[in-house]
Amino acid sequence: xxxxxFKIAWRNLLCNKFFSIIKILGLSIGLMVxxxxxxxxxxxxxxxxxxxxxxxxxxxxxxxxxxxxxxQTIGTTNAILGETFQKEVPGIEQCVHINGAxxxxxxxNNDLFTENSLFTDENxxxxxxxxxxxxxxxxxxxxxxxxxxxxxMAIKYFGVTEAVGKTIQLKINEEFENFTVTAIMENAPQxxxxxxxxxxxxxNYERYNTNQDWFGGSMNTFLLLSPQAxxxxxxxxxxxxxxxxxxxxIAKIKHxxxxxxxxxxxxxxxxxxxxxxxxGPDNGMTGGSNPTYSYILSWIAVFVLVIACINFINLSVGxxxxxxxxIGIRKVVGGTRKQLIKQFLSESFLISLxxxxxxxxxxxxxxxxxxxxANKKLSFSYLSDNxxxxxxxxxxxxxxxxxxxxxxxxLSAFRPVKVLYSRQKLMGKNYFTKxxxxxxxxxxxxxxxxxxxxxxxxxxxxxxxxxxxxNNLVRIVLPVRKSSDKLPALFKNELxxxxxxxxxxxxxxxxxxxxxxVDGKPITIEKSRIDDAFLPIFKIPLxxxxxxxxxxxxxxxxxxxxxxxxxxxxxxxxxxxxxxxVNFRSGxxxxxxxxxxxxxxxxxxLKEKIVPELLTMDPSFNYGQxxxxxxxxxxxxxxxxxxxxxxxxxxxFPYSYQFMDEINERNYETEAKWRQIIWISSALFxxxxxxxxxGLVNLFIEQRTxxIGIRKILGAAASRIILLISKEFxxxxxxxxxxxxxMSYYAINKWxxxxxxxxxxxxxxxxxxxxxxIVVAWVTxxxxxxxxxxxxxxxxxxxE
Length: 800
Description:
Layout: H1 2-15, H2 17-45, E1 57-66, E2 72-74, H3 79-88, E3 92-106, E4 112-120, H4 124-127, E5 132-134, E6 146-150, H5 151-158, E7 167-171, E8 176-185, E9 198-201, H6 202-206, E10 220-225, H7 231-257, E11 261-269, H8 291-318, H9 320-332, H10 337-374, H11 380-383, H12 386-412, H13 416-420, H14 431-463, E12 473-477, H15 487-495, E13 501-508, E14 513-518, E15 521-529, H16 534-538, E16 542-545, H17 555-558, E17 559-563, H18 564-570, H19 574-577, E18 581-584, E19 591-598, E20 613-616, E21 623-630, H20 635-649, E22 657-659, H21 660-666, H22 669-703, H23 705-713, H24 718-752, H25 763-789, H26 793-798
Parallel strand pairs: 4-9, 6-8, 15-20, 17-19
Antiparallel strand pairs: 1-2, 1-10, 1-11, 3-4, 3-7, 3-10, 5-8, 6-9, 7-8, 12-21, 12-22, 13-21, 14-15, 14-18, 16-19, 17-20, 18-19
Helix pairs in contact: 1-10, 2-8, 2-10, 2-12, 2-22, 8-12, 8-14, 8-22, 10-12, 14-22, 14-24, 14-25, 22-25, 24-25
């Protein structure tokens, strides 16, 4: 009997090729999107689950509560915490420190490269599961001058993976030293937050970075708990010991600086780090992700599949009148409703199976493009397992059931007498079918509005002035150490005669926040070290006072420049701020005088609000970057000049540069990717929705063929017939548009809250989406409507 069901299903597919192709195409697209998102989500939740000890591995995190400021959670500590906890807190078996730091590598040709290495303890390979191709995992990191390379790194520097025993020159601090390769490890899996091509002994890092402070810290500290240990009990033991060790220091801070401070320690499972919104991968760990992206993509996949199934349902019901006599005859000769339901579900399964096979091919074909959009490296090769196959099988069965269940119930309920006398009606007040088509277009319009809003916000960001001139500004990275302070002067002397170089300025790298007091009022600031050329090169205007100058030697130790926001926060005017003093709560120079006020500029992305900024020439900061203003006439030649000059002045450090415009663009890379994803999703929604609309229009025309023929005989114009056919569906789309407006407004408004500076939500966004949906729907309906309006009325009446 089952074979018979599939034979009949196959014949029906062949007899209705056009609609069969549309059904299969719609389902294929829906299944393809689901497969892609399934792979994406599986990759996201699979991070770090390949480690044998994953259930027992935790990272120490710290949550700071300072005064009335919002609490801040970090995933880093100083080394003393892990070492002490391992000795004194029960339940902790091992401690592993991981600290990321760039090192300079010199190859046999004396070429210099920068590699992001990890400094870690010698028990690293006993705690984490990273297989070794060569070497002993217990002794690989035991000695001070040893190094472990990944397979790819070994090939890069030695041309082969058999590199154990060979030496490589590395510069960790000021000089190059020889390190012996003691092991070669497999390349880290894609779904790992610990990715590196080079591991170095942690004790080598400690030679230059000794910190026994219990506060703060910059390294990842992992604890391996015993199998029987309770993480909450271990947390309480850690907290008690930490409070005991820091009690005196916290009391001192509160007394001297009048700040209430408390620090809560916690244990973060290794498998939670990738998707953590509070303490993600840090300092050597990579691949952090926002779980919101997975939720959004998952909902898009669900909606696309639901719309594809709705499309299938509408087309199946729309074709039902052509099969009504078949159903009537089956019932007359003894066919039961149960058998008919099995028949229609078999047809649904067959179509779903064909669509599924096509979807697999489409997924494999489009995966490289999807990887580019999602910034991933997804592939079936490393994600394939029983869970993946079970998920795909479940997806197939659910799709076949959802797509076939409703048509099976409706069609199997036909009464033999009515269908044989062509009196069976399906349209009427079929609110469910109409609701499905309205739901489809509601989702499509919602996504179109969101895509327009994202596009509008990105255009707003690109048009908004940053408060400085970013054109033809090149950033060159300097080694961050005390000796770097002499480098800006050397570059200026070397390049001063070059006509293509318009100016050179120095600045510290990274960000630094601090708290100062003005007139007894505390202000949290962004602090930067610059030289006297910085403001002229960036063309940041002074609105009061003066710039730093060599004519005033004291500028480097007790003068500062502040921005407008700082002045407003202090309650001053720009001119009134000149000569005022700023008290630093810590640091060598505790009092500084304001000599200038600059106009606010966006030194961060437009996602963040401008905060009080203080510019200084404080020599306790190290310069870490040069800004070079170049002429646009011959950029390649000028860049080559900069590179040659850099190699001459800093031969031991790799050359790295970036244009300021590129840096600004990268601030909005994620939003640009999402703009593409939402636009593509909108197009898919509209396409599949129109296929469903095509089926519903076909149903409408089939049921009203006689009415259309009579109207034509009585003199109705073709335009009136087209309006009759289209009117009801345009009303449905209008209802969908009205429902989509508040949904999209809420979603857009919530998304825009992530930007300190944002575009307005204008009515034109909604109007354009509504007009686009109606126009596309009208074009979809027009062919069938025009064909029906121009049909011979005699044939139309005979069809009844």
